[in-house]
């Protein structure tokens, strides 16, 4: 019964591709998002994803890799933000607000202008379209996924020290500027790889919701990453199926499933949950 | 003398955040084998001094030199424990993870922690009396336990130079004693131990040297010589009252001062 329900869509190759992308994106978003969450940079993830849009659009126009376009847009926005910060009274957060929103607007205009002749759809950039990924997209996603996971594994102990205690790490002689830059590149790569699945606006959800769910359940960073990966992957796959069967937009479906997991964790986490806390209190009172 | 050559010298260190000067022309000599305390009111620039010495905040002017090199170039010899308020205690990490951070630099890139490193971490945790708390999330520790974990992290770094920013915040008398004993051991081994301290009570007598700081250095040197009412008033401004109190300064110290047998409330 349910088995058929799961197997049936997989005879279509577009569903197979979607499945691969869902798994990879769910996993790497959770891992990279864990770093954003513990550094309280959740909203930075949002800002970065918006600012990458014009790069992605330009890459489409000139038929080059969207990763290259995103990288250039990311670097350019960082340079402009630092420029505004250093050469005026404007503080960093205001500079970020100005630059990221302008980049986003520019991206939307670029895509709107070119979408007819290039047969692309603005909505897919904004909200994702996991059922429409191509073989090339699958390959790119897998490559990015491997790069991201391998980097995190190789630099795990340094990144843990750095994200927990930046000053202590710097004082101990770790090159924190490079760790910081490397981490931001990972965030950028992950966001671009996730565009097809959830789009620029909703990618924040896959970055933050699974790690936040995990954070309520476990106590160490690598455990947050593992549990977050499981939550992220299951959310992506479930969202994809809901999208297929009920003809829902895929990105929002994925996001809502992830939010559902978070709600469960919020209510029933053994140590942190609201409901479990209440029950514990009650049983103690009864004794 | 050899000791003088080995000293850490701070020369004319000047730091400003935005427009306001926080440190002005600070000149210091920190000697090895001594327990050196830095005292001064809130906002005096104590934390900034430690950070600027290590190059963790940019200075407008001046330098910190050790063995003929900038101290910021010798960071592998330094263990720095930031002020408690700068740590995110909700970070998902445990006592064990935090102590092992002290071995990251020694372990090197792309390698897992060695058996020796783990052994050293266990020894350090034993030394600070935290071996039973290895798996405890750091957010679930008391203030004194938190400080001891960070002390263990500093110990496993096997540094020559130790900087502690207010390690006695939220610490009771017993823990304070444990921490001071370890500081003294480090000093006996010929290490540099520089400690920002808030408490001006009895515990101040544990220090060999004191630096009184309020944007500039008010006084520095042997504790008997610099821990005087005049210097304290200069450092803390008029906000300080001296009350007579027994046992304030250890017996035999500051005999030549009128100040002994006094305590201080702010
Ligand atoms: N990152 C910063 N940006 C701007 N101003 C800062 C920054 N850090 C410290 N200051 C200012 O510099 C001054 C010195 O701060 P510092 O933290 O060095 O003082 P402190 O002596 O360590 O104080 P406390 O006893 O409260 O720890 C203060 O006036 C503080 O407001
Ligand atoms: Mg301070």
Describe this entry's structure for a reader.
Chain A is built from 14 helices and no strands. By secondary structure, chain A is mostly helical. Chain A has a single domain (23-286), classed as ABC transporter involved in vitamin B12 uptake, BtuC. In chain A, helix 8 (135-154) packs across helix 11 (176-215). Chain A is globular and about 65 Å long. The mean pLDDT of chain A is 91. Chain B is built from nine helices and twelve strands. Helix content of chain B is 30%, strand content 26%. At the A-B interface, helix 9, helix 10 and helix 12 of A face strand 6, helix 3 and helix 4 of B. The complex binds adenosine-5'-triphosphate (ATP) and magnesium ion. The site of magnesium ion has 4 residues of chain B, from helix 2.
Helix and strand arrangement:
The complex is a heterodimer of chains A (287) and B (266).
Chain A: H1 2-7, H2 13-38, H3 42-51, H4 53-62, H5 66-87, H6 92-118, H7 122-127, H8 135-154, H9 156-164, H10 166-171, H11 176-215, H12 221-246, H13 250-268, H14 274-286
Chain B: H1 2-6, E1 8-17, E2 20-30, E3 35-39, H2 46-53, E4 61-66, E5 69-70, E6 78-81, H3 95-101, H4 104-107, H5 115-127, H6 143-156, E7 161-165, H7 173-188, E8 192-196, E9 209-214, E10 216-222, H8 223-226, H9 229-236, E11 241-244, E12 262-265
Parallel strand pairs in B: 3-8, 3-9, 6-7, 7-8
Antiparallel strand pairs in B: 1-2, 1-4, 4-5, 9-10, 11-12
Helix pairs in contact in B: 3-6, 5-6
Bound molecules: adenosine-5'-triphosphate and magnesium ion.
